[in-house]
Amino acid sequence: MIEMGDVLSVRMDKDLEERLAFLMTQRKIVDKSAYIRQLIDRSLSAELLDYLAEQVDAKRISIWKAASIAKISLRAMMEELSRRNIEMYDEQALREDLLFAEGK
Predict the structure, then answer these.
(1) What pLDDT was estimated at residue 8?
(2) Over the stretch 26-53, which tens digit does the pLDDT of each residue have?
(3) Pick from 1, 63, 95, 100: most CB atoms within 10 A?
């Protein structure tokens, strides 16, 4: 059984509603709430990856930690950073990763 979280009410302007209706019609989607949850999930995942990539690039967190926060594999995080042309590893990042892996 799927457990649902809090209820969120959102007002959509006419343009947003029209684009949503168009996509739902074209994709033959009938469950508007489920589709909007899917879109929000996709958008939040992308936003989270953007933020984490910025943090890794600024050397504020390690790649390992970023992958853990994003709930993706280290390899997937490294591929994401590579797509963004972000330098991935230096000595400080290695130390942080080793401490994080040891649970410290």
Answers:
(1) 85
(2) 999 999 999 999 999 999 999 999 999 9
(3) 63
Token output for 78: 């490294």
pTM for this predicted structure: 0.74
Contact partners, residue 63, CB within 8 Å, separation at least 6: 56, 74, 77, 78, 81, 88, 89, 93, 97
Task: Using only the alpha carbons of the chain, give its radius of gyration.
Answer: 19
Q: How far is CA 60 from the centre of its chain?
A: 18
Q: What is the mean pLDDT of residues 71-85?
A: 96
Q: How far apart are the first and last CA of the chain?
A: 36
Alpha carbons within 13 A on the beta-carbon side of 47 = 6
The contacts of residue 70 (CB under 8 Å, 6+ apart) are 45, 48, 49, 52, 77
For residue 52, the model assigns a pLDDT of 98
Instruction: Check: CB of residue 84 under 8 Å from CB of residue 52.
Output: no
